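Escalation from tier 1.

The customer reports that the assembly of two entities below gives different structure tokens on two consecutive runs. Tier 1 could not reproduce it. I'm attaching the input and our single run for tier 2 to review.
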Amino acid sequence: MDKSDLVVLDRVDKSFVTRHFLQRDEESNERYFYRKRRVHAAKRIAFAVRRGEIFGLLGPNGAGKTTTVKMVSGLVRPDRGVVYVDGLDVERKRLQTLRRVGVVLEGTRTSIWPLTPLENLMYYGNLKNVKGRVLRDRARELLCFIGLKEKMNIQVRRLSRGEKQKLAICIALIADPPVILLDEPTTGLDVQSSRSIKDKIIEMTRGQGKSILVTTHDMNVAQELCDRIGILDKGELVACKPTEELLDLFSDHSYEFHLDRLPDAGAFAGIIGVHEVSPVLFDKEEPVLLVRVDADRAVRSQALYATISRLHELGYALHSVNERQQTLENVFLHLTGGGSARPERPSQGGSRP
Amino acid sequence: MMSFLLVVKAELVRTWIVMRRYWFRTVTGMAISYGMLIMFIIGFVNRPESVDVPANFADAGKATNWALGFIIGMFAFGVVGMFSQGLQTMAQSGQLEQLCMSPHGLVTNFMARTVVGSISNILSSAVLLWLISRTFHDTLHATDENFLPMLILLTLTFANVLGFGFMVGGLVLVFKQTGQIAIMIRLALFALAIAATDKIAEWNVVARIVAHIMPITDAAICLKYVLIQGQKIDGRFCSVFWHPSGAFWFLLGNCLFWTLFGILCFRVMENWSRSKGTLGAY
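Tier 1 run:
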């Protein structure tokens, strides 16, 4: 275990028994009052979250994301394997590890609605063993940080859903834990609230050095926030890589050259093969040249320069160059067997040779 | 201990704020429930054929016995309810997950929560006692000399019911639906508190054993004894602690058993609930 790892899951297994009432066996045509079925929520999951890192857990419904978060927070006991938080075994030192973890679970109300945000923080602060002036100062500081300063004395029931979610994050942060677990933090929020929460999450890691384990269905959230991503499917960790690397792994490296007129196919024959450029494609409707380079970064760079030079020689005006970027959604669908990893949309950022 | 006091403080502040903020609901709720209770009690004791009590309250002891049982039963009903229905409600609202993740531990949190929740229960019981004593021509021996025995008995009763509540709460942690069965258990406690008198010695062996195991029987017998007869009769000292039926010693034994067994059971169930993945969730 690396010293920089704040959360470590070491080959963790967890399965649950579910009961289905009044089922009928199709073969024997017999009715059973109930049938037990074992569902694997985690199969030898192993990953680590480093200090100051945002680690995203993605997966379809029932993949085991929430169970994983609950195992880290001590709410669920693993069948096998060990979970460490800040070097402490969660099973053996559960109460000590709870001091080091702040949790926002999905869909829970968490906060007490008849109280104000400030009163909520004072209450939960005491439950987390924070007291006195330290608690008062920290509660006000957090409400300012999250943007609820103006509403600190309004009852929670009068707050919007986004504000309640922000308050839930403040509650998780009240004891100043080094590890924050966020289960679907932006689900059901409008664009502004979601943006605001994402900004705060980034600020917590970059500014305060906290480690964050976030589960989400929202691929944009994962792509924007996470330094590394783990993809869960039926309890198995099918991928665990830095976000860029994961996207790169499944990218087909296609580039769109937007020109002033339809390109001539024959004119580009010279660059095919020379720079490992695989078929140069043309869109017959639009003045767009599509180039795909299945090679490493250095060769790709040379191929792109060669294409641009050739376009320049032939007198084409080059309006823009876009990489047909792979989205996390495609990667996710590919890995979880939900579809192919075909590129679907160009990136918004302009040229990237 | 510091953890416990810190949580008690937090719970007191929270309860006080909610009661103060929703003062109209608090006051009307109390008025309605007390009004109904008093009407129920008075209505019951005014029907002599049902309890063999003369209508003029000449034998106020029996009526007081019944009314005291009612109050003790209500108390037990409320305390156990904090574990069963309280747990269910908290699980549904999501607050239970936060309590489960408190570094003080779930037992400390629940103990503090129940102690604070019981304060209003104790206060309302005191108000009812006072009303009963006025209704039955000051037949209650709520005198200074009975204060200490009452305090000891009430503490033991509370610990007894708390331990039992922990056991019920543990079951609810694992099997959320048992909260509904717990209502029946609470009603049984309520009925037992009313029925419990020295006469249980005349019951058959099995019924007697079951009655003594239940946390409220001996507590009710002792409390009724002190409140109705006092520590002295005709100037003769006849303390509840040396009660001929040994109810006090049963209460003491019960208290130790339920407190230890209840908390142990709660811890075991908490761990089981974690294994099942149902801790904090409904």
